[in-house]
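[recover] target loaded
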């Protein structure tokens, strides 16, 4: 898990560079030298000639209104000084939003990125973040022709965008088969890092199916990718595009040997929807999920740590209608195995809304199959926390877990639409670290339903304190699942 650092979109950032030099002796027999070099040092010149004309430079502009007042020459000179030496700009911006000022608008550079010709009639693929917020998009071909482009659609979730220029007979790329791509295989990138057009870099595929928490499993490479390479192609040794360079993993903002590309098969599926309907439609079933760790698997009796742990079920969503419960582990969806939690949103998201699918869950030692009708994904909603009548704490229950609870009143049960449970009046220590908080209602612990404080105490007394404790609880409209680790 890449938790120490963050993925940074490829913007122009200041960076420090470290050059490490070393020497080593390499001895090859005369008959070995030529063959060894031919295996380890591929020639990319033919690939550049083949694919280079299909790569474009993308510049974006935004419209702003000049703010500088007449006679502000000194201010302009001061601002130029700050810009030239990379110093923080003073809090006197030169432009103001168009809504705050009157006067003629001016086009100002917003960003620089890359793209490539997807079809000979002027369709160009790039990253969504390259064209995001742009008032005007300019595309420059390798023959120096420049076109104004129209954005046909952009999908933030996959970071894929499709733009169109009015031209024909353009050199389109060939789409490669990502399934044939192998770890260790040589690949090449062409783009405009830091605005340097038609820059060629090369490396190898470091990993496939790299899960970064997004909807797509990325291709990881060590190809040098920097701000401005965004949207450019990742090319195999057959001259086929296998990915769109999208992200880097960096502590400085510059290249550090880890780059990520969107697999071309996934990108093409997104582009086809952008071309036909201007947006991407994805499936959803209304569950919150988490990883199945070794501790979670042991607490639920699952032989192997695999699948997606259902930590919450949305009220009225397809999953609830199908019978999915928090604490279930989804091991298959639509016949496809769920090896890790990140597999589920990608599989469900690729299914057309309205489709009937089957899901397989592991629940309390047995396997269950359910039928679910996939709904269309929508903007995330924040569950409202209901206002509950005041309840007097009955005392510290489950002190070793950090819980203070009380019985629910009839009014609270009606408000929450639950038949039983106990209200959390305070959550500290292990309970707080597991994500529990005041106002949550515990429905079950250790796979045992609890309807009162007394029943909760009895269930906790039977639980092995050395093992993780699974907790089923209600928060707003969501029934959720959490695991309190021993000694946490």
């Amino acid at each position: 898990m890449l938790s120490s650092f963050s993925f940074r979109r490829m913007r122009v950032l200041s960076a420090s560079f470290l050059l490490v030099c070393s020497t080593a002796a390499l001895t090859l027999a005369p008959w070995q030298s030529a063959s060894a070099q031919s295996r380890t040092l591929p020639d990319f010149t033919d690939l550049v000639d083949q694919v280079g004309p299909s790569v474009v430079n993308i510049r974006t502009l935004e419209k702003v209104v000049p703010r500088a007042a007449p006679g502000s020459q000194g201010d302009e000179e001061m601002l130029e000084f700050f810009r030239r030496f990379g110093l923080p700009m003073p809090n006197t911006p030169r432009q103001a939003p168009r809504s705050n000022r009157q006067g003629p608008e001016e086009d100002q550079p917003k960003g620089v990125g890359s793209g490539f010709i997807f079809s000979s009639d002027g369709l160009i693929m790039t990253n969504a973040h390259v064209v995001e917020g742009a008032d005007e998009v300019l595309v420059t071909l390798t023959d120096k022709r420049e076109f104004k482009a129209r954005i046909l659609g952009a999908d933030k979730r996959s970071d894929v965008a499709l733009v169109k220029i009015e031209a024909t007979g353009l050199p389109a790329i060939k789409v490669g088969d990502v399934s044939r791509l192998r770890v260790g295989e040589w690949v090449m990138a062409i783009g405009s890092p830091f605005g340097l057009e038609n820059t060629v870099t090369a490396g190898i595929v470091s990993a496939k199916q790299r899960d970064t928490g997004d909807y797509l499993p990325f291709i990881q490479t060590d190809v040098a990718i920097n701000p401005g390479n965004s949207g450019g192609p990742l090319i195999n040794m057959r001259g086929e595009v296998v990915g769109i360079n999208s992200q880097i993993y960096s502590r400085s903002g510059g290249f550090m040997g880890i780059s990520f590309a969107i697999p071309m098969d996934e990108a093409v599926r997104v582009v086809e929807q952008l071309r036909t309907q201007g947006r991407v439609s994805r499936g959803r079933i209304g569950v919150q999920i988490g990883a199945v760790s070794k501790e979670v698997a042991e607490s639920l009796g699952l032989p192997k740590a695999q699948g997606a742990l259902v930590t919450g079920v949305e009220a009225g969503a397809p999953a609830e209608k199908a019978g999915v419960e928090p604490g279930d582990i989804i091991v298959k969806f639509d016949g496809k195995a769920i090896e890790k939690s990140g597999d589920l949103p990608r599989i469900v998201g690729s299914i057309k809304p309205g489709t009937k699918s089957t899901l397989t869950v592991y629940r309390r030692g047995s396997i269950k199959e359910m039928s679910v009708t996939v709904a269309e994904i929508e903007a995330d909603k924040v569950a409202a926390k209901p206002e509950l009548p005041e309840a007097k704490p009955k005392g510290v229950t489950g002190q070793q877990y950090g819980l203070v609870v009380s019985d629910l009143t009839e009014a609270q049960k009606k408000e929450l639409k639950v038949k039983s449970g106990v209200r959390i009046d305070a959550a500290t220590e292990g309970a707080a670290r597991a994500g529990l908080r005041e106002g949550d209602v515990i429905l079950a612990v250790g796979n045992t339903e609890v309807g009162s404080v007394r029943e909760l105490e009895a269930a906790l007394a039977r639980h092995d304190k050395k093992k993780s404790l699974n907790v089923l609880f209600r928060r707003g409209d969501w029934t959720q699942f959490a695991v309190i680790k021993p000694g946490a």
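[recover] notes: Residues 1-31, 92-96, 379-396 have pLDDT under 50 and may be disordered.
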